[in-house]
Design goal:
The protein is mainly α and about 200 residues long. Helix 2 packs across helix 3. About 45% of the residues lie in helices and about 10% in strands. It has two domains: about 130 residues, TIM Barrel, CATH 3.20.20.140; about 50 residues, no CATH class.
Length: about 200
C-alpha cells in the first residue's frame, strides 16, 4: 500500500540515523565496473545489469560471492574514499544525520591492502561528509582478535577463533559474525555445539 503524499514528505524530512552499516555492501554495480576497469580486475559478471540481477540472492553463498567480487576491486585509498562518499551522498538525500559504519579489515588485508589505506580512505570520506553534509560518523572495525573475515571466506571455522565462545558470545559480541542471530559465529554458538550429539530415533509404536 502506497503512502499518502503528505506522509511521504514527512518521512523524507525527518532526520535519520544509520546504524551497523557494512560499507562494502553499499558498492553500486556502476562503481564496481569502474574500479575493476581501473585496476584491471576481471569480474565474474558480464555487465552492470548482470550484477543487478545477482542481487536476487538465492542463498548466503550467492550473496557472499557478490560481496567478495565487489571487495576485490577496492585497491587504493581513493577507492575506499569513493565507496564511502557515494554512500554519504545517497544518505544525505534521505536526510541521514548520523552514520555508524562497519568495515571488514581482514577481507582487504588478506589481499595485501594496508590497513592505513582502508582507514585513510574511509576517514577522508567521513570528514568530507561531515563538512559537506553535516553527517556525524562513527567507524567501527572488527576487533583485531576476531577471525570473522576468514570465517566468512570459509578459510576458518568459528571454533578456530581464539575468542569464540569465551570473550566473544552472543551476549558479549566482539566481531560482526556474533552480533546478530544470523551471523556465522552466533549460529554456530547456538546450534553448532549440538552437531555431534547422536540423534535418538523414537521407538516404533
Amino acid at each position: 500500500m502506497a503512502l499518502d503524499p503528505a506522509r511521504a514528505r514527512l518521512i523524507r524530512r525527518l532526520p535519520k540515523v544509520e546504524l551497523h552499516l557494512h560499507i562494502e555492501g553499499t558498492l553500486e554495480p556502476e562503481m564496481m565496473f569502474s574500479l575493476a576497469d581501473k585496476h584491471g580486475v576481471a569480474l565474474p559478471y558480464a555487465s552492470v545489469e548482470a550484477v543487478r540481477a545477482a542481487y536476487a540472492f538465492s542463498d548466503l553463498q550467492s550473496f557472499l560471492d557478490l560481496y567478495y567480487a565487489g571487495c576485490a576491486v577496492l585497491r587504493d585509498r581513493r577507492d575506499f574514499y569513493a565507496l564511502a562518499m557515494a554512500y554519504f551522498t545517497r544518505a544525505h538525500a534521505d536526510n541521514v544525520v548520523h552514520a555508524e559504519l562497519f568495515f571488514d579489515p581482514q577481507t582487504h588485508t588478506v589481499r595485501g591492502i594496508p590497513m592505513e589505506v582502508i582507514i585513510g580512505g574511509l576517514r577522508d570520506a567521513m570528514q568530507d561528509a561531515e563538512k559537506r553534509y553535516g553527517i556525524e560518523y562513527r567507524p567501527v572495525a572488527d576487533n583485531k582478535a576476531c577471525e570473522c573475515g576468514a570465517i566468512l571466506r570459509g578459510v576458518k571455522k568459528p571454533t578456530d577463533c581464539k575468542v569464540f565462545g569465551n570473550a566473544c558470545t552472543p551476549e558479549t559480541p566482539i566481531g560482526s559474525c556474533m552480533v546478530s542471530s544470523e551471523g556465522a559465529c552466533a549460529a554456530h554458538y547456538t546450534y553448532g555445539r549440538f552437531k555431534d550429539v547422536p540423534i535418538v530415533k523414537a521407538a516404533a509404536a
